[in-house]
């Protein structure tokens, strides 16, 4: 329980990131730290699998890595009809990284906080997906890639033409432009907020369950954890698939 | 909840992760997968070909077996025929040989009979000469009476 006492204090404590700096230059150390650690875990696992990759009978590590790779590759092949060296590895990275972020959610809410407190860290929010900065970092990166590929494939004029002359023809240019800008901006915002909202709400419910009397907690947190496992995978999957879809849309020439 | 510099840090991490995945993780894994796919396809094709080969070989073996059976039946028939022929032939030969032997024996008997007759005739003529000598009390000159003796012996014969 929080040192500040009271339910509100407990919740606020759990949802406050460990931060340094002021204003815009604030850094959420916990988000940065945990996502970097999870990223390193992801890299090490896959690097290991890639190094030991054999065409013969695969081991356990290779099996898991290959399952994920084939799964992502299939998604990319289903959606994206072209050749790109970036999209599939990008999808794999997004899926695995977000999956690992989300998985942090099923670690008991007080456990890492308690360890943090013992270690002298006052605030600790372990799930990077409950930080808008993390989800927006992903979706804005994807957005930059969308713009980059739109210009690369269609050319500056082609892209400008698509922005101004669709869907209603050149006579409705300002309206078209407005519509297109809203459409494009909506992509990263919806991506980031969907992931953030799902995981933030999930974490909040875990925290609320943790506030209940101890004898009720298992009966609520256990089913919620099982349900949450579904959300964890589903949100990672949705983020990946939408990224692939957006990027293949950027590749399509009208 | 505010957007701040964490966003930039996260974007840098993300870029590094994607770069690493793209460069070091994805290519070897997808290559291994493709190669394994190729291998499995080749293996399946080889297995199918092997099965076909076995089928062909079985067919051929059956054909050979059939031919061999026919051949052996043929050989047996021929051998039986040959055996019958040989038996017949030897029977024939034996018969001929027997007849020949009988003929030879008959000839020999005939000859011996002739010989005996000759001897007998000679003895009888000698006896007759002796008797005549005795009767005539005179020795018959063989040279002188050659004609006579031969006449007598001819009559005796």
Question: What would you say this structure looks like, in words?
Answer:
The complex is a heterodimer of chains A (254) and B (157). Chain A has a two-stranded antiparallel ribbon. Chain A is built from eight helices and two strands, in the order αββααααααα. The relative contact order of chain A is 0.14. In chain A, α2 crosses α3 and α7 packs antiparallel against α8. Chain B is built from two helices and no strands. The chains are: A mainly alpha (254), B mainly alpha (157). Chains A and B meet through β2, α2, α3, α4 and α6 of A and α1 of B.
Features:
heterodimer, A: 254 residues, mainly alpha, two-stranded antiparallel sheet, 2 strands, 2% strand, globular, B: 157 residues, 2 helices
Stretches of chain A where pLDDT falls below 50 for ≥5 residues? none
Shape of chain A: globular
Number of strands of chain A: 2
Strand content of chain B: under 5%
Question: Brief overview, please?
Answer:
The complex is a heterodimer of chains A (254) and B (157). Chain A is built from 8 helices and 2 strands, in the order H-E-E-H-H-H-H-H-H-H. Chain A is mainly alpha-helical.
Describe the protein's topology.
The complex is a heterodimer of chains A (about 250) and B (about 160).
Chain A: H1 7-15, E1 19-20, E2 27-28, H2 29-51, H3 60-79, H4 87-103, H5 111-118, H6 132-165, H7 173-211, H8 217-251
Antiparallel strand pairs in A: 1-2
Chain B: H1 6-136, H2 146-156
Helix pairs in contact in B: 1-2
